[in-house]
Structure prediction request, 118 residues.
Amino acid sequence: EIMQAGGDTIFGQIIRGEIKTDFLHEDDQCVAFDDIEPQAPVHFLVVPKKPVPRLSDAQDSDEKLMGHLMLVARAVAKQKGLSDGFRLIVNDGPEGGQEVMHIHVHVMGGRQLTWPPG
Ligand code: 5GP
Prediction:
């Protein structure tokens, strides 16, 4: 797993430490860090070290990893004090608005969020 840490995107560079970024969380499977262009008072990303490009590319064998991202999102949200709630978003592909092709979970909170997100 460590051998394939990273990948070719900017998130790969962040994971490998080539772009200095403060991690809110790091373990053997993923990292979490604040989004550079926050859309809410709290907006961070949970990113697996395995460079799965998008959710559409995830395999059955990635099931535990995908679940792990959600539980890390929850833990960091708690750490950030989001006791009144928060939102997870996974953008997939062009129509999903995905810009960085390394799967990631957005976590947003700290204000009243509206629905639908648009
Ligand atoms: P996507 O549209 O792919 O779901 O979201 C990519 C997210 O990554 C965007 O919210 C964008 O602001 C964030 N982002 C892009 N480049 C960087 C970076 O270099 N550092 C950090 N911290 N966030 C980034």
